[in-house]
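Q: I'm writing up a methods section and want to include an example of the input and output format. Could you take the sequence below and give the corresponding predicted structure tokens, formatted cleanly so I can copy it straight into the document?
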Amino acid sequence: MEKNVMLIAAELNVSAQQVQVVIDLLAEGATIPFMARYRKEATGSLDEVQLTAIRDRHEQLTELDKRKEAVLKSIEKQEKLTPALAKAIEEAKSLTEVEDIYLPYKPKRKTRATAAREKGLEPLSIKIFEQKNFNVEEEAATYINAELGVATFQEALDGARDIIAEQISENQEARKNVRELFWKDGVIHASVLKSKAENEDAQKFKDYFDWKEPIKKTPSHRLLAMRRAEKEGFITIDIAPTEELAIQSLEKQFIQAKGQAADQVALAIKDCYKRLLKPTLESELRLETKLLADAEAIKVFSANLKKLLLASPLGQKRVLALDPGFRSGIKLVCLGAQGELLFDTVIYPLEPQRQTTQAATIVLGLCDRFKIEAIAIGNGTASRETEAFVKGIGLPNEILIVMVNESGASVYSASDVAREEFPNHDVTVRGAVSIGRRLTDPLAELVKIDPKSIGVGQYQHDVDQSKLKAGLDDVVMSCVNSVGVEVNTASKELLSYVSGLGPQLAKGIVDYRNQHGPFSSRSQLHDVPRLGEKAFEQCGGFLRIRDAKNPLDASAVHPERYALVEKFVSDLGCTIKDLMNSAELRKKLDLKKYVSAEVGLPTLTDILSELEKPGRDPREKFEVFSFEAGVHEIKDLKVGMLLPGIVTNVTNFGAFVDVGVHQDGLVHISHLSDRFIKDPNQVVAVQQKVKVTVVEVDVQRKRIALSMKTDPFNTSPTPAKETAKQTPTSQRVLPKPTVKPAQKVETMEEKMAALMNKFKK
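A: Here is the clean output for your methods example:
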């Protein structure tokens, strides 16, 4: 097997065969959800996390191989490629290592060193670098040449040191050592620009006006905050170890003697670090720490998004949805059990109109007319007042009243998707519809919104947007396919996330459905234009058809295994429905009897489990939640109050909780639990219902500090020690390839290469 397969297998602790199978399946167009659910025998039952890791690492190594190929061609074109150099490049394990090897051969613009070489000063630089005992000034004087632009012996020495400085900066071992220092002992120092210190917009970054800490301990959220402050022009950031430490490291490697020549090398080392190494390695460190922070932020966002998408659905109910407001009124819509818009209007029960009686009559009448089963209230402005109004008008007890998180509803209401769905209604109606649908099926509605607009991440607008989109798309696809999609009611936005489909085929399914009526069987999907065998293989098991003639069409059993189920029922002498309804019949099945080269026990076990609960929804059962009565605004909060709340966002530094006052409170990581924790996801999740104690209220700044500790006031408020995951050294600091020095030195370039070889550790 190829070396990349072996490398991935070793890194991820799986077999090389598993890695190769996954790579082959990906090449054939298989999706992560499809492989995880329907190709367990082939992959060895790898889960989605493992499959994604293999895919991503394979893509990284493929890009690395492309870069190696380009570097080899470049050096070969220069006629400088040796077998040893080629081997070193081919064996490099990271892009950083490849670039370090390539640096001396990389075409570059004119530098001080190239100018010095043009003046004929390379022989002087080599002699100085050898650090033998000789009179440096007398030797330098022999290189004075007015025609070449060397007027004094000092200019000759300056030029020689420029050449030595560049050689040191391009030395792979030197770069590795100093790079390690940047990671190990680097300190990030943020300083405010004096001209911006009093700027009102800068005050939100006041903590970083004079901030120092080791870069290896800087949490991702703090790094992203400092980078944002720098980007907005309020602070400057410097990341480096102490200059003395870095220069000592270089001197230890390159100073081999004492005397005038060694003194010149020491001067070249200082210049090399300040002018060449520090700027490039700091830029490299900035990039790598940003990549780490991005990865952590995307991880946090993905975890939160998954919880939000898989929030408990109320199910197919007739809903009256309210989008609260004061002066502009409360937008009201009535939705059918399939989420279709039946009626819309505006009511004005709150200030300043106070048309309470009229509004109550309208709501009660609509609830009776449309047989409303639940009322959804958006949690924005005037939400608690709207809730109090609704609860006070005498609705039947069986009608549920639920507060719904409306983050992103305004984004949806102004989107092309919403305009296409409701071309004859304005944004206020569309927003209210979105609120109502979020109650009945959060997943189906939230897939219509850009995940970044849902508000469950940390610094999501500061991270690499293409990587963020890829990561979130993975999450949405995973959630959609784990739940399954009813093909006859799903929007094209929801269908587009089904394994093997995408926007075009999803639109094709909806168009076909509109033209020919509901699908009666999965096999009918073959009639959809451009939906071929491969796409059907990928999507078939995730699409559901309720009340189909074949009950398997409403289950997660893949069509390719229908014949196997038919064999089950044939052997038992019953029908498929009998097998689904009877635990006794299922117990009679000896699954080992049906194992074959294509189907193993993992798949057979999944099929049997699915027959027990066909088309089951993995989401938790819906539970009604209510905020504390009488607590509507931040000014209603008092220190010491114990309140019910819903987690709206989880970050590395804590969790935000909605307690019903239009401003989320923060439970700092140090107050999430009585025990010390490093990861907030260990104890809370988005949409989780919690009990919190108010520990601090700042009405003016609209800040609320909450606690989930048993006794929050008997504990020091000092934040728990924060830690940030660092890149393993093996991925940052790269092994030096073995390159044998030439035995015969003929050119100046070869002389310098041989000399540099002496300074290896």
